[in-house]
Design a protein that fits this description.
The complex is a heterodimer. Chain A is about 20% helix and about 35% strand. By secondary structure, chain A is α/β, with parallel strands linked by helices. Chain A has two domains: about 140 residues, Carbamoyl-phosphate synthase small subunit, N-terminal domain (Glucose Oxidase, domain 1), CATH 3.50.30; about 190 residues, Rossmann fold. In chain A, strand 14 and strand 15 form a beta hairpin. Chain A is globular. Among the domains of chain B are: about 110 residues, Rossmann fold (3-Layer(aba) Sandwich), CATH 3.40.50; about 60 residues, 2-Layer Sandwich (Dna Ligase, domain 1); about 200 residues, ATP-grasp fold, B domain (D-amino Acid Aminotransferase, Chain A, domain 1, 2-Layer Sandwich). Chain B is built from 19 helices and 18 strands. In chain B, strand 13 and strand 14 form a beta hairpin. In chain B, helix 1 packs across helix 11. The chains are: A alpha/beta, B alpha+beta. Chains A and B meet through helix 3, strand 14 and strand 15 of A and helix 9 and helix 16 of B.
Chain lengths: ~350, ~550
């Protein structure tokens, strides 16, 4: 069965359908990770986006029961060069195609994903539709143009948990995670470090959260445009805004597992996992209040900062990895240290 | 850190004559190192006994010695030239061994020469089985289980603990004789008795056999600031038991989830740190049990290796050149990526194609040689092919072998059932073609897997090539007029000759029909970053895709 991917600027790609049939809209973005499609698909930050994988052979190791980052996939579509005919791995419990079908996600294969990636790189992330039902190209392009897009959209309310729950019932440190679309691995890493983890919906009031008397507060990752969100969210970007900084949309975002970041405190390079389309403007930060701790070595954008007076720090990338390198897991240890410090 | 100014002249040890197991890849790495260090303003002194190399071209080094790479000769060169440092990690095992001996002899100390890249202690830790095992245990890595035994009774107890199959290696034998693999207690008793007799200490090492496990390699780089990056992962088509140099290998790894890949990445970083390679590249090999996922480390080479040359070309990351720069004090974040120009070398290449390396054998030149592929290398060369899919790359690679195969061809004769089973079970140069015969004759993927332990993902890809082949045959009347059928054939790596044979036509007719349809080859870039950044000095591979990136 044929499938189409139409972009708002009039470019249309034709391929073969897999997963679910139908039509959906979203912002087209690319991810350069060579492995980790299961984690990427189930990362709530991709809400409202159609993901193009730059690595051409996808689905090789199938889907397993363990590598979930949330209960289900959240993206609007999945674009690959070649879908594997088999799932070959000792942990595989099913194929990628049946997984997408089950969760009503439309997949398209046989696409020149490199041409698509270059187009996004040059023209910027843009609105798109993916379809197996409507095949008229003009109609599809118009639908892409008329779609909502991401700018100005608060998608957090669609992915946050409905009510607060305990992720880990016991532990030395009490941590409140504000779920803006949190990946499980954030909670797993905290639990591993002896934290009692309680997860709150993103629209919880300060009173609700503080009534649990947490030792530490973690603002999670999440989808959408931070400027539109008026409560606590999208960790780093939100904190940037709260401290008087500005955010802007990157042309085509950082999405991959090979982004070099320098930790300015020890001049060491970490290879990081990233997934963000918006960014805190490095020049908008009040350098009297805030110390820049991490920068991206590729494009010198802001990747992390800490408050000079208060025990607050944040990073733009994903120290919880999953998918991606574990180089930055030490940040969880630093978080524990901060909590220890405020205990004393 | 800026480059070191306390050293002015550097001795580079080459790899010597081309032999099976050590070929032109070390000429490539050595020549890259010479160029990089000269460009940095160092006086480069080179020793290599092989005049038929690029490395020994007169403009490559400031001083070139074509002398035997043995400690006595190299010592004389050191005495005469008085280099400040020696770089032993770019000339393969020959250079590494020679440098190690020189260090043991005290030559470097005597003439005040610093070993850069890797010192004698590092080499010893990586090469000595006992020291290596201890180091790996210290960082919590799993190895194949092993234990020493001094009598048959003791040996049987060990066999019970570890379980079959087992590898038996007698300690201290003349010429390493008396060992072998045992699959049952009868074989085991025979080999152990023979081994105990052959051993001067009446001692055998009994080791868990990992034959048939999935085999992986990681190419790792480290700088003086302790930054470590992974350049490339490689998965072997042929499982453990066949030397990597004789295996079909694929980059990147295909059948590992991100969790499993990161486990291997973390382990690789821990290994290079624990062994203590100061700067430069290392190659680390792992085996993974196909049913349980248990990962064991096999070995590490504290130097640029055969696979580094492959990884360099596969990713666009010049490992030898960067290794030379790291050796003189630069850090990865200070070296720009030549291809993107805007990003630093402290990143991990990500690729958007599939790379397949296929070994080339010339058994016809070695009459009487055992043609079964084992743990010692027998191939004399290799092809490397890049495609958008494994199927395309495999067919291109087979075509390039110059063994008159136009791709994933049929065997030229019909083997008997016994012959077929034998060829599948005992790896040989033509196994890939026997695999085709097996699939076409209706043997199931599961059955082939049981015999060969070649991952089902690879086997299924072979099956898919065969399916496209039948599809072409079925459409023999249409293909020369129908672009979508033709495109499918080309995307799966079928050459015009292959198509012509399948439809009973000739190459020129297929070619001109294709030209008429406007279905032409397209070229895509090898750019280290999967198109995330524009590329300035990249190279191309051919494929059949929508967009042609060729600027010529």
């Amino acid at each position: 069965m044929k499938a189409y991917l139409a972009l708002e600027d009039g470019v249309v790609f034709e391929g073969k359908a897999f997963g679910c049939k139908g039509l959906s809209e979203g912002e087209i973005v690319f991810n350069t990770s060579m492995a980790g499609y299961q984690e990427i698909l189930t990362d709530p930050s991709y809400k409202g986006q159609i993901i193009c994988m730059t690595y051409p052979l996808i689905g090789n190791y199938g889907i397993n029961t363990e590598d979930f980052e949330s209960l289900r996939p959240h993206c609007s579509g999945f674009v690959v060069k070649e879908l594997s005919g088999v799932a070959s791995n000792w942990r595989a419990g099913g194929t990628l195609s049946s997984f997408l079908n089950k969760h009503k996600i439309i997949g398209i294969e046989g696409i020149d994903t490199r041409a698509l990636t270059k187009h996004i790189r040059d023209q910027g992330a843009m609105k798109a539709v993916i379809s197996t039902t409507i095949t008229n190209k003009t109609k599809l392009i118009k639908m892409a143009k008329d779609s909502l897009g991401l700018v100005g959209r608060d998608l957090v309310k669609e992915v946050t948990c409905k009510k607060a729950y305990e992720f880990n019932k016991s532990g030395k440190y009490k941590v409140a995670v504000i779920d803006c679309g949190a990946k499980y691995n954030i909670m797993r890493e905290l639990a591993k470090r002896n934290c009692k983890v309680r997860v709150f919906p993103a629209n919880s009031s300060a009173k609700d959260i503080l009534s649990s008397k947490p030792d530490g507060l973690m603002l999670s990752n999440g989808p959408g445009d931070p400027a539109a969100v008026t409560y606590v969210c999208l960790g780093h970007q939100m904190l940037g805004l709260a401290l008087g900084g500005k955010t802007y949309k990157l042309k085509f975002g950082h999405r991959g597992a090979n982004q070099p970041v320098m930790n300015l405190s020890n001049r060491k390079v970490e290879i990081t996992s990233q997934n963000h389309g918006f960014c805190v403007d490095i020049d908008s930060i009040d350098k009297d209040k805030v110390e820049i701790t991490h920068i991206n070595l590729n494009d010198k954008t802001l990747e992390g900062f800490r408050h000079k007076k208060y025990p607050v720090f944040c990073v733009q990338y994903h120290p919880e990895a999953s998918p991606g390198p574990n180089d930055s897991k030490y940040l969880f240890d630093e978080f524990i240290k901060l909590m220890k410090g405020s205990h004393a | 850190m800026p480059k070191r100014t306390d050293i002015k002249s550097i001795l580079i040890i080459g790899s010597g004559p081309i032999v099976i197991g050590q070929a032109c890849e070390f000429d490539y790495s050595g020549a890259q190192a010479c160029k990089a260090l000269k460009a940095e303003g160092y006086k480069v002194i080179l020793v290599n006994s092989n005049p038929a190399t690029i490395m020994t071209d007169p403009e490559m080094a400031d001083r070139t010695y074509i002398e035997p790479i043995i400690p006595e000769f190299v010592e004389k060169i050191i005495e005469k030239e008085r280099p400040d440092a020696v770089l032993p990690t770019l000339g393969g095992q020959t250079a590494l061994n020679c440098a190690f001996q020189l260090a043991e002899m005290g030559v470097f100390k005597k003439y005040n020469v610093e070993m850069i890249g890797a010192n004698a202690e590092v080499i010893k830790k990586a090469e000595d089985r006992e020291l290596f095992k201890k180091a790996m245990q210290k960082i919590g890595l799993d190895l194949p289980k092993s234990k020493r035994a001094h009598s048959l009774k003791e040996a049987k107890q060990v066999a019970k603990e570890i379980g079959f199959p087992l590898i038996i290696r007698p300690s201290f034998t003349l010429g390493g004789t008396g060992g072998g693999a045992a699959f049952n207690i009868q074989e085991f008793e025979t080999i152990v008795e023979r081994g105990l007799e052959a051993s001067m200490l009446s001692e055998v090492l009994i080791e868990e056999s990992v034959a048939g496990w999935k085999e992986f390699e990681m190419e790792v780089m480290r700088d003086l600031a302790d930054n470590v990056v992974i350049i490339c992962s490689i998965e072997n088509f042929d499982p453990m038991g066949v030397h990597t140099g004789d295996s079909i290998t694929v980059a990147p790894a295909q059948t590992l989830t991100d969790k499993e890949f990161q486990l291997m990445r973390d382990a690789s970083i821990a290994v290079i740190r624990e062994i203590g390679v100061d700067t430069g590249g290392s190659n680390i090999q792992f085996a993974v049990h196909p049913d349980t996922g248990r990962m064991v480390i096999i070995e590490m080479n504290p130097r640029v290796s055969r696979s580094s040359a492959l990884a360099s070309k596969a990713t666009g990351f010049p490992i030898a050149k960067i290794a030379a720069k790291l050796a003189v004090g630069y850090t990865l974040d200070e070296i720009p990526n030549d291809i993107t120009q805007v990003t630093p070398a402290s990143f991990e290449p990500t690729i958007d194609y599939c790379v397949v390396k296929i070994p080339r054998f010339t058994f016809e030149k070695f009459p009487g040689a055992d043609q079964t592929l084992t743990i010692s290398m027998k191939s004399v060369g290799e092809t490397m092919a890049i495609g958008r899919t494994f199927k395309e790359a495999l067919q291109k690679g087979l075509r390039g072998l110059e063994i008159s195969a136009a791709g994933f061809d049929d065997l030229k004769f019909k083997p008997t059932v016994a012959e077929l089973n034998n060829k599948l079970k005992y790896p040989c140069a033509e196994r890939i073609f026997y695999l085709k015969y097996a699939i076409k004759s209706g043997m199931s993927i599961n059955k082939i897997y049981d015999i060969t332990k070649i991952d089902k993902w690879f086997l299924n890809n072979l099956k898919e090539i065969i399916e496209v082949e039948s599809f072409i045959k079925k459409n023999k009347k249409k293909i020369l007029k129908n672009p979508s059928i033709m495109r499918k054939a080309k995307e799966n790596g079928f050459s015009d000759i292959q198509i012509a044979r399948l439809i009973g036509s000739d190459e020129v007719s297929v070619y001109s029909a294709r030209e008429k349809m406007g279905l032409k080859v397209s070229f895509k870039l090898v750019d280290t970053c999967a198109a995330e950044f524009p590329a300035f000095t990249p190279y191309y591979y051919s494929t059949y895709e929508l967009e042609d990136e060729c600027r010529a």
